[in-house]
Write a structure and sequence with these properties.
The chain is α/β, with parallel strands linked by helices. It contains 15 helices and 20 strands. The chain folds into two domains: 158 residues, Leucine Aminopeptidase, subunit E, domain 1 (3-Layer(aba) Sandwich); 323 residues, Aminopeptidase. It is elongated and about 80 Å long.
């Protein structure tokens, strides 16, 4: 779907979208439409339950006095609460309502709302972003879709008195959306399409954006001593990979990079500790952390971020076979620390152990943030509203929380400490890979912390956020790409042109 920007004017064809504040307060576009329809909007609102609450919609077909085919009213909520996320929800809700409506073109009116902190340009740009995010579809394997189920909307024009400024602001946001779409694509693909080799190829394609990409195979990782990562993939016919993506800013060539590390288990059967059959198909998206890192790197490079950044993803397939890792095996990680593998389904932390150690040892970052669909326990704890945050550095934790809140990808910090660390003590090795049912997400984080070597670090457990079971204003159900916008915002707000202060 193409998104364009123009000056405000009533269109002569297609659909038009107008915002209404809570309390049935019409914006300028809605007022003009009401006038042209001789009070038609007011009558329609009066005979409905539409009050302008956030997310409410009211559709008026073949409005009298206008040549447009339909008017869509979208509730904005209260003006004082109308921020960037509200503007995105406005654009996304509009597209969600019109995408498969039969309309090929729509126009969305952006008005000034006293009480809102957004400028006209910011409002329009964010409405455009929300519209694009909601337009995403993953239907490449559907060969018999009914016509009414196929997207019809081809173009959306965002109308604003600050059209030129909005178009400029949207250009940056659009590159971030590109990263989101890349992540949604790779997370949505089935495991016979996205596996360690093919996901590494997707990362290598980022060279077109100016990112340096290095792919390590099993022979190279074995020389590095990555027994923890390699043990996870040894039951699969697919070769495990470690991918290192580097984005360099010419003005900061000597500055330490920010680092993002992703768990990339392209299919997780559980290995010998095999999972129940019901729902196992969902384990195609156990690589969502790696997908988010790849998407975030694409976003940073796409908008030419003024920062040095590295993305490291460990890519494996966890399968049962005659060569698979067994419960009770002891592996030696790149750090030299030994791990007793109690449960082969607690494999993500084994992958991240070597990826984190490699990142801090070889790349010397100013901090590391890892993203992983790591534990089912975090879903029990936080549901599908927040990702779990664990950190060794309070400043980094605070910045991540603020960045997440700004883009609607919320984090909740959980505790860590020595008592939890004791739960992963092994009788025969330096540690074991699980610490029991109690505090399972926390003991997983304690495990990861042992491989950070005192570099500032944060762990995001995104198991409850990587996949959505229902549509939202800006994301259709399915892969969410949680983490892409969060990491981009973290960089933009705190590490770009600020010398890492």
């Amino acid at each position: 779907m193409k998104i364009a920007f123009s000056k405000s004017a009533l269109p002569t064809e297609g659909a038009i979208v107008a915002g209404v504040l809570e309390g049935k307060l019409l914006g300028a576009t809605a007022q003009s439409l009401d006038s042209e329809t001789k009070g038609g909007l007011a009558r329609a609102i009066a005979t409905s339950r539409f009050e302008g609450k956030k997310g409410q919609t009211l559709l008026i077909l073949a409005p009298s006095g206008l040549s447009v085919s339909r008017i869509l009213l979208v509730g904005l909520g209260k003006a004082k609460d109308l921020d960037a996320l509200g503007a995105q929800a406005f654009g996304g809700t509009a597209v969600g309502s019109l995408l498969s409506s039969g309309e090929s073109e729509a126009f969305i009116g952006i008005d000034a709302y006293p009480g809102s902190t957004l400028s006209a340009a910011e409002f329009a740009a964010n409405a455009g972003l929300g519209a694009r995010l909601r337009s995403y579809r993953f239907d490449k394997y559907m060969t018999k879709q009914k016509k009414e189920d196929k997207p019809s909307l081809k173009k959306l024009t965002v109308m604003s008195e600050a059209a030129a400024e909005a178009k400029s602001a949207f250009a940056r946001l659009d590159k971030v959306a590109d990263g989101v779409f890349l992540t949604r694509d790779v997370v949505s693909e089935p495991a016979n399409i996205i596996h360690p080799e093919s996901l590494a190829e997707k990362a290598e394609a980022l060279k077109e954006l100016g990112i340096e990409v290095e792919v390590l195979g099993e022979k190279q990782m074995k020389k590095l001593g990555m027994g923890s990562l390699l043990g996870v993939g040894q039951g699969s016919e697919r070769e495990s990979k470690l991918v290192v993506m580097t984005w360099k800013n010419a003005d900061k060539k000597d500055e330490a990079p920010v680092a993002f590390v992703g768990k990339g288990v392209t299919f997780d059967s559980g290995g010998i500790s095999i999972k129940p059959a019901g729902g196992m198909e969902d384990m195609k998206w156990d690589m969502a952390g790696a997908g988010a890192v790849i998407g975030a790197m694409a976003a940073l490079a796409g908008r030419k971020a003024k920062v040095n950044a590295v993305g490291v993803v460990g890519l494996v397939e966890n399968m049962p076979s005659g060569t698979a890792q067994r419960p009770g095996d002891v592996v030696t990680s790149m750090s030299g620390q030994t791990i007793e593998v109690i449960n082969t389904d607690a494999e993500g932390r084994l992958v991240l152990a070597d990826a984190l150690w490699y990142t801090q040892d070889r790349l010397k970052p100013k901090f590391m943030v890892d993203l992983a669909t790591l534990t089912g326990a975090i879903v029990i704890t936080l549901g599908h509203e927040y990702a779990g945050l664990f950190a060794s550095d309070d400043k980094l934790a605070d910045r991540l929380t603020a960045a997440g809140k700004a883009v609607g990808e919320q984090l909740w910090q959980l505790p860590m400490g020595e008592a939890y660390d004791k739960q992963i003590k092994s009788d025969i090795a330096d540690m074991k890979n699980v610490g029991g049912r109690e505090g399972g997400s926390i003991t997983a984080a304690q495990f990861l912390k042992r491989f950070t070597n005192d570099v500032a670090w944060a762990h995001l457990d995104i198991a409850g956020m990587a996949w959505g079971k229902k549509d939202t204003a800006t994301c259709p159900k399915g892969a969410t790409a949680f983490g892409v916008r969060l990491l981009d915002r973290l960089v933009a707000d705190y590490y770009e042109d600020k010398a890492g202060k």
